[in-house]
From TrEMBL:
Any single Pfam family the record assigns to this protein: Biotin_lipoyl
GO CC list: acetyl-CoA carboxylase complex
CDD domains named among the record's database cross-references: biotinyl_domain
Keyword Lipid metabolism: yes
Pathway the protein acts in: Lipid metabolism; fatty acid biosynthesis
Xref: NCBIfam families: PRK07051.1
GO biological-process terms attached to the record: fatty acid biosynthetic process
Lipoyl-binding domain ranges (all copies): 3-79
Name of protein: Biotin carboxyl carrier protein of acetyl-CoA carboxylase
Signal peptide: none
GO molecular function: acetyl-CoA carboxylase activity
Sorted UniProt keywords: Biotin, Fatty acid biosynthesis, Fatty acid metabolism, Lipid biosynthesis, Lipid metabolism
InterPro entries, alphabetized: AcCoA_biotinCC, Biotin_lipoyl, Single_hybrid_motif
Amino acid sequence: MALKTIQAPIPGTFYRKPSPDQPVFKEPGDIIAAGDTVGLIEVMKSFMPVVAEEGGKLAAFHIENEDPVMAGDPLYDLEA
Protein backbone atom coordinates (compact mmCIF):
# COMPACT_ATOMS: atom_id res chain seq x y z
CA MET A 1 0.00 0.00 0.00
CA ALA A 2 1.15 3.49 -0.81
CA LEU A 3 1.42 6.03 2.01
CA LYS A 4 0.19 9.53 1.16
CA THR A 5 0.62 12.56 3.42
CA ILE A 6 -2.39 14.88 3.44
CA GLN A 7 -1.58 18.56 3.97
CA ALA A 8 -3.50 21.42 5.57
CA PRO A 9 -5.39 23.39 2.91
CA ILE A 10 -5.42 26.63 4.94
CA PRO A 11 -3.71 28.07 8.04
CA GLY A 12 -5.52 27.99 11.38
CA THR A 13 -6.10 25.70 14.34
CA PHE A 14 -6.71 22.00 13.70
CA TYR A 15 -9.44 20.22 15.65
CA ARG A 16 -9.98 16.46 15.65
CA LYS A 17 -13.42 16.82 17.34
CA PRO A 18 -16.59 18.66 16.28
CA SER A 19 -16.82 20.09 19.83
CA PRO A 20 -14.96 19.56 23.14
CA ASP A 21 -17.57 17.12 24.49
CA GLN A 22 -17.75 15.01 21.31
CA PRO A 23 -15.54 12.09 20.21
CA VAL A 24 -12.88 12.59 17.52
CA PHE A 25 -13.92 12.34 13.88
CA LYS A 26 -11.37 9.61 13.10
CA GLU A 27 -8.66 7.61 14.88
CA PRO A 28 -5.46 6.15 13.42
CA GLY A 29 -6.34 2.74 12.04
CA ASP A 30 -9.83 3.79 10.91
CA ILE A 31 -10.93 3.14 7.35
CA ILE A 32 -12.08 6.37 5.74
CA ALA A 33 -14.03 6.97 2.55
CA ALA A 34 -13.84 9.89 0.16
CA GLY A 35 -16.00 12.64 1.61
CA ASP A 36 -15.49 11.67 5.27
CA THR A 37 -14.65 14.52 7.65
CA VAL A 38 -11.27 13.94 9.30
CA GLY A 39 -11.08 17.20 11.26
CA LEU A 40 -11.77 20.93 11.25
CA ILE A 41 -9.56 23.97 10.74
CA GLU A 42 -10.69 27.11 12.52
CA VAL A 43 -9.79 30.54 11.18
CA MET A 44 -11.23 33.63 12.86
CA LYS A 45 -14.16 31.70 14.39
CA SER A 46 -15.03 30.03 11.06
CA PHE A 47 -14.65 26.25 10.88
CA MET A 48 -13.68 24.55 7.62
CA PRO A 49 -14.04 20.76 7.47
CA VAL A 50 -11.01 18.75 6.38
CA VAL A 51 -12.64 16.22 4.05
CA ALA A 52 -10.91 13.11 2.71
CA GLU A 53 -10.46 13.35 -1.05
CA GLU A 54 -9.95 9.58 -1.35
CA GLY A 55 -10.50 6.48 0.71
CA GLY A 56 -8.03 4.37 2.61
CA LYS A 57 -6.75 3.63 6.09
CA LEU A 58 -5.79 6.55 8.32
CA ALA A 59 -2.22 5.61 9.29
CA ALA A 60 -1.25 8.45 11.66
CA PHE A 61 -1.79 12.09 12.53
CA HIS A 62 1.17 14.48 12.31
CA ILE A 63 -0.41 17.00 14.70
CA GLU A 64 -2.47 16.97 17.88
CA ASN A 65 -5.91 18.38 18.59
CA GLU A 66 -5.89 22.20 18.79
CA ASP A 67 -2.42 22.52 17.23
CA PRO A 68 -1.81 25.52 14.95
CA VAL A 69 -1.18 24.68 11.29
CA MET A 70 0.02 26.57 8.26
CA ALA A 71 -1.19 25.83 4.73
CA GLY A 72 0.86 22.91 3.44
CA ASP A 73 1.71 21.47 6.88
CA PRO A 74 1.25 17.68 7.06
CA LEU A 75 -1.99 16.69 8.82
CA TYR A 76 -2.21 12.92 8.50
CA ASP A 77 -0.99 9.89 6.54
CA LEU A 78 -3.36 7.82 4.44
CA GLU A 79 -2.65 4.27 3.25
CA ALA A 80 -4.36 4.10 -0.12
